[in-house]
């Protein structure tokens, strides 16, 4: 971004704000009339009337409602996360919301597979034993030959399925509605028929591993209930890389305490998990601190994604990942 860009008169709605200069590195030359400015959203924006797109800080937890309400030309709020449930209440009327579709697929899928292997093969127990100088030889379940159900089959779910293909698993995909995957997708992840969520009662008793990748919505909050967990066979593993409130924590704790189920959780409810929470000490659970997207894979994919979003906005095309549409997004070409 040149100094001229900072001081020139800009047509309303043609400014995109980025929360950190690192996201501007690699954007390259922008279309004529489009401008990028830095705004970390810790205070009011400069030249608020010119801002059309706001990219909110990654993993931010502040309430930006008052700041967004002061932008008269705002058309789109763009997250840098796959989840967006916390942003929806902040949107001014008529403003669209898009999530970072595809940005975190690689990193989150990698973590999901890693958590699955670590939990099944008993890594937490080996680490505890090693700290005491113990050679704790065990025979543990392999990922090979497990019946794995991926619940939520968007970008992250598909990426997980692709990475599971070499592990000799029996994979079942479940989404909100049943569908047949297009051939080019089947070639990548090997799943042709995606089952609907209404089939869970039949599928859960036949699943050794359940990996959650669903967004947090009214329909998915508390989806993994006591009844859901009771349907899983003894020794099954629940892996959550979605959102903490998708799982009923009390119900999960009951199953963990009984020793019947295992869990690997990148997200929890509550989050962050308080130091005295029983999930820290119950047997059979592996916890990572919400790091699904927090890897070196994030930044380059975020920059490529943001550049494409800016190009789409400049050329009159609908942005990717629109989760809350508006009259503006509905008027754009796909």
Question: How would you summarize what this structure contains?
Answer:
The protein is 28% helix and 16% strand. It is α/β, with parallel strands linked by helices.
Descriptive account of the structure:
Helix 3 (105-121) crosses helix 5 (155-164). The chain has an eight-stranded mixed beta sheet, sandwiched between helices. Helix content is 28%, strand content 16%. The chain has 334 residues and is an alpha/beta fold. The chain folds into two domains: 3-103 and 297-330, Rossmann fold, CATH 3.40.50.720; 105-287, NAD(P)-binding Rossmann-like Domain (Rossmann fold). The protein starts with a helix and ends with a helix. It has helices at residues 3-7, 65-69, 105-121, 123-131, 155-164, 183-189, 200-203, 226-230, 249-258, 298-315, 327-330; strands at 15-18, 35-38, 51-55, 76-78, 96-98, 147-151, 170-175, 179-180, 193-196, 209-212, 237-240, 262-265, 285-287, 322-324.
Main β-sheet, spatial strand arrangement: 8-9-7-6-10-11-12-13
Determine the N-to-C terminus distance. Answer: 28 Å
Q: Domain count, please report it.
A: 2
Helix percentage range? 25-40%
Q: In this structure, how is the largest beta sheet organized? A: 8 strands, mixed
Mean pLDDT: 93
Pick out the low-confidence regions: 1-10
CATH topology-level fold name of the largest domain? Rossmann fold
* Strand residue content: 15-25%
- Taking all Cα atoms into account, the compactness measure Rg is 22 Å
- Would you state the CATH class of the largest domain? Alpha Beta
Question: SS-based structural class?
Answer: alpha/beta
Order of helices and strands: HEEEHEEHHEHEEHEHEHEHEEHEH
CATH superfamily of the largest domain: NAD(P)-binding Rossmann-like Domain
How many runs of DSSP E, i.e. beta strands?
14
Number of helices: 11
- Named CATH architecture of the largest domain: 3-Layer(aba) Sandwich
* 3D shape: globular
